[in-house]
Write a structure and sequence with these properties.
The structure is a single chain. By secondary structure, the chain is mainly alpha-helical. It has one domain. It is built from seven helices and no strands. Helix 3 packs antiparallel against helix 6 and helix 6 crosses helix 7. The N and C termini lie far apart (61 Å). The N terminus is likely disordered.
Length: 259
């Protein structure tokens, strides 16, 4: 098999969406290796198992939380690597200067989209605060450091949690349902945005509008970073920049209020 750079002529989005670099999505058409449908099903179940560690692993502080945050991506990646062998790296590409710029662009785009959609949803349905930064400052510098390290790992896990099912759905639609490449991409993009939003329901007090509309819209932007670059590291970078900006603002505000 080859490296997976095998575009389907006439089945690519324009340059505004996809780079004109010939790079294509892996696995959906058997390149660089074939991953059977049942294997994708197991990979998705592994994503669910990883997510379950975040929900149910007992952790009293940020340092203890490092364990479930590491398991979150580690569990599905272990299964994914087991099924794809040496071709597991096809979702990862070496970062370039353009990639770092792309991270910043999608970070800023995500902030703008999330803010605009969030204001509308908050006005109509109300909104609940993300409790991620609660009590972090009370643990001192070690807790703050563990928080940033842990959330960085967790945000990478959220990309794994989204991109692997995205590729699975694309494979099933293209190979089994015989849909076109681009239609498969669009459907997988929309379905995984809802998948990601549903995972955030507990975080936002089961506010469905906030989880599916606000978080779902943010997920569309982040997945678009992967669609453009075919590199999970780029969508991860944009995600980390976005959430760390929000977390830092919240921590600074909390510190100012406590002083």
């Amino acid at each position: 098999m080859t490296s997976g750079i095998k575009p389907h002529e006439g089945q690519r989005f324009g340059r505004l969406i996809e780079r004109a670099d010939g790079r294509d999505f892996p696995y959906y058409d058997g390149e660089p290796t074939d991953v059977a449908g049942w294997k994708w099903g197991v990979i998705i179940l592994a994503c669910v198992a990883g997510f379950a560690t975040l929900l149910f692993f007992p952790a009293a502080n940020g340092i203890q939380s490092l364990i479930p945050r590491i398991l979150f991506p580690a569990i599905p990646l272990a299964v994914f690597i087991g099924f794809t062998g040496r071709y597991w790296t096809s979702v990862f590409k070496k970062l370039t200067g353009v990639d770092y710029l792309t991270m910043v662009i999608f970070w800023l785009l995500n902030l703008a989209v999330s803010a605009a959609v969030g204001l509308i949803v908050m006005a109509v349905f109300g909104a609940n605060a993300n409790p991620a930064t609660d009590n972090v400052l009370e643990g001192g510098p070690a807790e703050v450091a563990a928080f940033y390290v842990g959330t960085g790992i967790q945000l990478f896990g959220e990309e794994v949690f989204t991109i692997l099912p995205f590729l699975a759905i694309m494979y099933l639609l293209f190979t089994k349902a015989k849909l076109s490449r681009n239609t498969s991409v669009i459907v997988a993009w929309l379905v995984t945005a809802h998948w990601f939003g549903a995972a955030h329901l507990p975080t936002y007090g089961w506010n469905f509008a906030q989880a599916f509309v606000v978080i779902g819209a943010a997920r569309l932007v982040l997945t678009l970073a992967y669609i453009r670059t075919k590199n999970i590291l780029v969508s991860t970078g944009a995600h980390v920049l976005n959430d760390w900006t929000i977390f830092t603002f919240a921590l600074v505000a909390a510190g100012a209020a406590a002083s």
